[in-house]
Design a protein that fits this description.
The protein is an alpha/beta fold. The protein has 6 helices and 11 strands.
């Protein structure tokens, strides 16, 4: 290679490298942008969390709900309640109704944001139909739960501390990935739908595993074999006096009451985490029942 060729190569190689980097950035820019918005709340993007560990504040805030359906999607979509008032840090369950007006099964996807946009960093969802692509059969109607809370840190941020009303907006579109791996059936929210222990295993990993395991005690007692077990009797775990003295067995009904509101079900219980939506409780209980059955000699 002569001197001129080497010089040309020294010029061309960096240019080609820069072009490759630019192509990569363009290719992944939608994903990178979504990740950036999720991390910062940019554009009113709300946050996804597994549980609510915030302390409830005396301050209240009004949350309003706005829904639209994009052209080409024959669904009716609206909130069951137009607005709710919540305390900062308070976990809240609300419902949205989706109804198919068409003659075929369609997969939809919900885009969302909150206004004022500066509150997106503090608006945190535990359960939402917007997390996945959602399939709705022809002429079916379902009520979809959303569980959220507003981080009390909102009151300390000078950009948001004077906010007293937040609007959560959704727009349902026809999905561009109707055959994707993350498509879920909205029929799972129906009261008549069978429990799904596999989904319960996923929920257990997301919402429970920080404090509980099946075979060992952690912050909470081991839960392997809990189904049918007397409350307060897991080996080598130090229970609260209230739970240690509770004279009940962990049946499906008792587990449902416990997960819905532990401190209401057993006064003096220490567990602060609640699972407000009934479909999630049903699936978690199905998973615990399956694990308990598998451990029976």
């Amino acid at each position: 290679m002569n001197l001129r060729s080497r010089r040309n190569l020294l010029v061309v190689a960096p240019i080609l490298g820069i072009m490759c980097v630019m192509v990569g950035i363009v290719s992944y820019s939608p994903t990178l942008y979504r990740l950036f918005c999720a991390a910062t709340g940019l554009g009113g993007t709300t946050q996804r969390v597994d549980s609510d560990s915030a302390t409830v504040s005396n301050r209240t805030i009004e949350v309003r709900f706005d829904t639209t359906v994009a052209p080409g999607l024959p669904w009716r979509f609206e909130p069951v309640q137009r607005e709710v008032t919540v305390h900062l840090g308070e976990q809240k369950l609300v419902y949205f109704t989706a109804e198919s007006l068409g003659d075929q099964t369609i997969v939809g996807h919900a885009a969302f944001n909150v206004t004022p946009e500066s509150t997106g960093l503090y608006f945190k969802k535990i359960q939402c139909f917007c997390f996945t692509e959602e399939k709705l059969e022809a002429h079916k109607k379902v009520d979809m739960p959303v569980v959220f809370f507003i981080d009390p840190a909102l009151a300390q941020d000078r950009e948001t501390r004077e906010v007293h009303t937040i609007t959560l907006s959704y727009t349902f579109f026809r999905s561009v990935k109707p055959d994707g791996a993350d498509v879920k059936g909205l029929s799972r929210f129906s009261a008549s739908s069978p429990p799904d222990p596999d989904h319960g295993r996923q929920l257990f990993a997301q919402r429970c595993a920080a404090c509980h395991a099946l075979s060992t005690n952690k912050t909470g007692p081991m839960l392997g074999g809990v189904f049918g077990r007397r409350a307060g009797t897991a080996p080598r775990y130090s229970y609260s006096p209230a739970l240690a003295k509770a004279r009940l067995d962990w049946s499906a009904a008792n587990l449902d009451h416990w997960l819905a509101d532990p401190r209401k079900f057993i006064a003096g219980a220490r567990m602060p985490i609640r699972v407000l939506d009934a479909p999630s409780r049903k699936d978690i209980i199905a998973y615990l029942r399956k694990e308990s059955t598998n451990r029976t000699p």
